[in-house]
Design brief:
Elements (H helix, E strand, L loop, with lengths): L13 E7 L2 E7 L2 E6 L2 E8 L3 H9 L1 E6 L7 H7 L14 E4 L2 E4 L4 E12 L3 E13 L8 H6 L38 E3 L31 E3 L1
Antiparallel strand pairs: 1-2, 1-5, 3-4, 4-9, 5-8, 6-7, 8-9, 10-11
The protein binds fe (iii) ion.
């Protein structure tokens, strides 16, 4: 099986949010899709290990904030690489309440759903939600997972349904360290927390000591040379 084929599926980048006993919480998701148009229903897949999963089970409601290409990539770090169990993620981003649910203000659109069914898999719950509210927040192109991967240089958290271990992608462009002509490429510096690959014009070694990962906000010291 060539898992590179999975990379040919298209996904967006979303924050799925709900309440945890009156406290807003949420996590990133890329497996979300519209299932039917009338009534409008949405399916999202959330890992059992994500704290948001149990919160959606409790409240029976969730909101989908659809991130745009111009949304702050730091939002993905806050919602994708920290646990909502002991971290108030919504304290770090601008939010709004729409139809009684918290959404990310810097998203290009939101959809609020009421859970009408769910399916358990070995690792994830697929929630089926009836849409009760939706609106566009700003003019922007929705961020696709390909854009996140290729332009922002971000990676999937390990509990994403679409996560593929890099070692499983043998022969992928990501693993190439030499060019077609055989010349050695400059060393890559990759954030060990979120997988962000530094690609700025300034050599990584010359970045100031207070440099932080633009995705997860962790310091320069957590970057590893690849
Ligand atoms: Fe990072």
């Amino acid at each position: 099986m060539n898992k590179n084929a999975f990379r040919q599926l298209s996904y967006g980048v979303y924050v799925v949010s709900t309440w945890d006993h009156g406290r807003a919480t949420g996590c990133t998701a890329n497996s979300a899709m519209q299932i039917t148009s009338d009534p409008a229903t949405i399916a999202v897949s959330i890992n059992h290990d994500n704290y948001t999963n149990s919160c959606i089970q409790d409240t029976g409601r969730f909101a989908l904030s659809i991130l745009g290409e111009h949304s702050d990539p730091g939002i993905i770090g806050v919602f994708g690489f920290k646990s909502g169990k002991d971290h108030n993620k919504f304290n770090e981003v601008e939010s709004a309440v729409k139809s009684y649910l918290p959404v990310v203000a810097d998203a290009c659109a939101y959809i609020v759903c009421e859970v009408i069914d769910k399916m358990e898999t070995s690792s994830h719950t697929v929630f089926l939600g009836k849409v009760v509210d939706a609106d566009v927040l700003k003019k922007d192109d929705p961020m696709t997972y390909a854009y996140y991967h290729n332009v922002i240089k971000g990676k999937s958290p390990k509990n994403a349904p679409t996560y593929i271990a890099e070692e499983a992608l043998t022969g992928s462009a990501d693993s190439a360290q030499t060019s077609a002509g055989g010349a050695v490429q400059p060393a890559k510096y990759v954030c060990s927390i979120c997988g962000y690959e530094y690609d700025g014009d300034t050599p990584f070694e010359e970045l100031p000591e207070d440099y932080v990962c633009p995705i997860c906000g962790q310091p320069k010291s957590v970057f590893e040379k690849k």
